[in-house]
Amino acid sequence: MLSRPYMQHALSAQAGDPPAPCRVQGPDCGFGTSMHTRLLGAAIAAGLLALTSPAAAQSVSAQVSGSTAIGVGPVPQSQWTPIDVTRNDGLNRSEASGSGGDANVTHWGPGLENAFYTSAGVEGFASAQPGLLRVFGSDRAISTSVNGVPPIPGVNPSTAYAAISASASFSDLVTVNHAGMAVGAPIDLYLHIEVEMVSQYALNYPVFSAHAMSAAASFNFPGYGPQNIATDSGFSPFRREDLPNGFQRYYVNFGNGAGVLLSTHVGDVLPISAFFQVYGQAIAGPDTYLNDFGNFIDARNTTALWFGDLPQGVVLTSASGHNYALDPRLPVSSGAVPEPAAWALMIAGFGLVGAMARRRHTLASL
């Protein structure tokens, strides 16, 4: 999948793209494009930061940010209400999650029998540990007539805004060891990188259109330049599959399942890092009565990096202590030690089996 570099797409080139046409009624698209550019720029900066972390230590990071607003006319993003984010960090693990939103109802008509419902909501989750990143993001903006009656212009001037960003990253140092080979002896390793995510709608909608949401990722490992991929880049390596439930599955497999060849040596210390982000925006209104816009990206079973089957005698050690020879998405055997009561039952059982065997031997000799 990679030449040197195979997937080095400049995400920053998107910042110069012309504004995409609006698909909803609302503020000028330039505002949406500006915010999208800032989100994309943040993704690039965060990815590069993860890829250029000091090689002296490993790190994990998970971040979630989002905001919503309902107002008349364009609402500056500085006035949007940020969501509350909670953290659940631990040893070699970083986790963040948050959600929030707002809603209002406008009544109209001779007897105020008609009503408009306007709402904005977002949710995000991010988790990072060595070799594994999990991310989720969703946004929704709704402007609808409760009873389906088309609005009179000016009756529902409210516009709903929603924006979400969730990202995760890790960096680590992996040392190549071999007890039977001298330091400096060449060894070929294969690094597996897989990315998978599911979305409610396709991910190629223009900024601030009906279902605009995007994903971006960056990877760095020895022998290749930074590998940057994005769903809204000019050339997206993500493969798309339509699922029976109407959702979309996107996935990337570096090396088409065989992994990426790394020409290493005994004693080499390999810096590896990965960054993954989902981000999106939704807008609905004013004076619309059937708008329900938004999307989600569920990437909680991605991104995974591991070295798979190692050459005989090769042992990998890492600064984090993580075992990169195993696919981190697979469950790990606990290898639990039996409790004392369990040991007692086992010993009693062995004794009973032995007694029965001796009894059979005695009866057979009579």
Query: End-to-end distance, in Å?
Result: 76 Å
The helix content is 10-25%
Low-pLDDT residue spans: 1-40, 46-56, 334-366
Give the count of helical stretches: 2
H-E string = HEEEEEEEEEEEEEEEEEH
Largest sheet: 10 strands, antiparallel
Helix-strand makeup class: mainly beta
Mean pLDDT: 76
Strand content: 35-45%
Let me know the number of strands. Answer: 17
What form results from the Cα inertia axes? Answer: elongated
What is the alpha-carbon Rg in Å?
27 Å
Supply the number of structural domains. 1
Entry summary:
The chain is mainly β. It has helices at residues 29-51, 340-365; strands spanning 59-72, 81-82, 84-87, 94-108, 114-129, 132-145, 158-178, 186-199, 213-220, 227-230, 239-242, 248-253, 260-265, 269-284, 290-299, 304-306, 314-318.
Describe the structure.
The chain has 366 residues and is mainly beta. It has one domain (11-318). It is built from 2 helices and 17 strands. The strands form 2 sheets. Strands 3, 4, 5, 6, 8, 11, 12, 13, 15 and 16 form a 10-stranded antiparallel sheet that branches. Strands 1, 2, 7, 9, 10, 14 and 17 form a 7-stranded antiparallel sheet that branches. Strand 3 (84-87) and strand 4 form a beta hairpin. The longest helix has 26 residues, at 340-365. The termini are far apart. The model is unreliable at 1-40, 46-56 and 334-366 (pLDDT under 50).
